[in-house]
Amino acid sequence: MKSVYIETTVVSYYVARPSRDVIVAARQESTRELWPRFASEYDSYVSILVYDEAAKGEEEQASLRLQAIAAFTMLETDEAARELASKIIAGHGIPEDYPEDALHIAIAAINGMDVLVTWNYAPFIRIRVRQIVEQAGYQCPEICSPDELLEITP
Fold first, then answer.
1. Terminal C-alpha separation, the chain
2. How far is C-alpha 2 from the chain's CA centre?
3. CB within 8 A of 107, min separation 6: which ones?
4. Tens of pLDDT, residue by residue, the chain (154 residues)
5. Rounded to whole angstroms, how far apart are CA atoms 37 and 44?
């Protein structure tokens, strides 16, 4: 089974109240379609960073996010991940305004994840990120949206 790191935006779309915005509603639908597959078709992981981000915000929604990720294996954030995140930012793979995004990628890479699934891929400069991660001696996970992962689901 492929290993998948689930970034915080995915769980947020999964539990969010229905939206009238067409793009948001489509993302919610894709996420809800993919969600059960995380348990049945993938080895799925989150990190303490995902947990911390999911715990923020409106209490009811935070509770739903934490419940949704409770079944997944939790990856720790160690010094190696922090160092790789710094390299990703220094190498202009992720803008310095988004250190958490660099840390998500680093945690996934350090832990050998095959895929990082996120709705927050706008700041991810995929080719540059891959170069930086691989130059640091790690395999870069495929960074994709739930829509993209649905297209390649085993």
1. 9
2. 15
3. 5, 47, 49, 75, 77, 81
4. 999 999 999 999 999 999 999 999 999 999 999 999 999 999 999 999 999 999 999 999 999 999 999 999 999 999 999 999 999 999 999 999 999 999 999 999 999 999 999 998 764 577 899 999 999 999 999 999 999 999 876 5
5. 9
Angle at 100 between CA 96 and CA 103, to 5 degrees: 100
User: For 47-70, what is each residue's pLDDT tens digit?
Assistant: 999 999 999 999 999 999 999 999
User: Cβ of 60: how many Cβ atoms within 10 Å?
Assistant: 10
**At 92, which CATH number?**
3.40.50.1010
**Domain hosting residue 40, numbered range:** 2-152
- Distance, in Å, from the CA atom of 139 to the CA atom of 131, rounded to the nearest integer, reads 10
Question: What DSSP element (H or E) covers 46?
Answer: strand 42-47
Q: What is the number of domains present in the chain?
A: 1
Q: Which contiguous run of DSSP H or E holds residue 4?
A: strand 2-6
Whole-structure pTM value: 0.94
